[in-house]
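For the sake of transparency, this paper describes our internal protein records without simplification. The remainder of this section carries one protein's record, kept here as part of the documentation:
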Amino acid sequence: MNSYRTRDDSLAALSAYEEFALDLSPDFLQHKVPRIDAESWEPVRWSQDPELEWCPPGHGDLYVALKCSGTLDRLLHRGVRYAFTSNADNLGAVLDARILGWVAENRIPFAMEVAARTNADRKGGHLAVQNGRLILREVAQCPMDEREDFEDVSKHRYFNTNNLWLDLLALSEAFDRYPGDLSLPVIRNEKRVSQGQEASPCCYQLETAMGSAIECFPGARAISVPRDRFSPVKTTNDLLAVGSDAFELTQVFRLVASDPARYADCVIDLDPRFFGHVEDLHARFPDGPPSLVRCRRFSVSGDHCFGAGVASSGARSSFGTNRRLRSRSNRAGCSERIRRERMDDEATLFRLAGQLEAARPWFDRRPKSG
């Protein structure tokens, strides 16, 4: 599923691969909905850039978009019974025939892959039981006075990876029960109309989450999977990790943690003021990523430029604003703040693949772990 903001880039990237050419369309389009003015509760009007008056309605739109685009009916007509869906930025989400066999053998209409929560996942959505059915509880739905309980990883031990397995016939039948739409909980996200302008008005984006559809299917199940099936790249923190020796590419081209047990508790925290964009990250690590395979925490505060052969190990590596590892002013091309599009939830796998391909020489300069 593409959004109107990502479709052109995605299809352009796919066109380079002739083996992906099918008689089915390679994508279907997500809807767009108006943003809501936080004061008037009317649709936003923003003459400076009318495009910002609209937003995608969240990945919960997957099901309606499948139905409205005709893709669901076309897949069923071709005899396709099951579908595997995931976030495009999850590099660990690959087809697993064993899970598919489990879903098909047990006639499970909807299956969600969950993984054990760590402190790094305390804000991730977790499952609960309501009226005998599984439901998904997201942090945006949690009252502030219950936030501590929500983030207790010993109480809520599993989080939703957003790797989902769908019985398409069951989905079609669900639309017969819920004409027009599935009854998914609506999440209200508050943002500025123009993120770069503090003077722009606040607005609400009304979204749904695709994992919340688990409550719409009697007999839905959850399955606990290894951590290597969840490797999201949403921020430059994540990008630095997958570019370092903390990850390795297997012979079947899966990107997995070199030491899964150690990496599960690893925290990378780069100062977003100076490392928040891909170009910023490359400029401040010009000789490639550091060695992080033995690292438990890598924290950078302030504006620093790292040289070659940097290795971090142990529980904490902090570089505060009073310590200069290498002045950026001594390196040509590093003195200007580079403003580019931030990697966020709307980044597609195809766009990410292009970024990773362009960054290959940078990854190749990482220290070799011994």
Notes: The chain is about 20% helix and 20% strand. Residues 7-227 form a domain with the Spore Coat Polysaccharide Biosynthesis Protein SpsA; Chain A fold (CATH 3.90.550.10). The longest strand covers residues 158-167. Residues 279 and 338 are 7 Å apart (CA to CA).
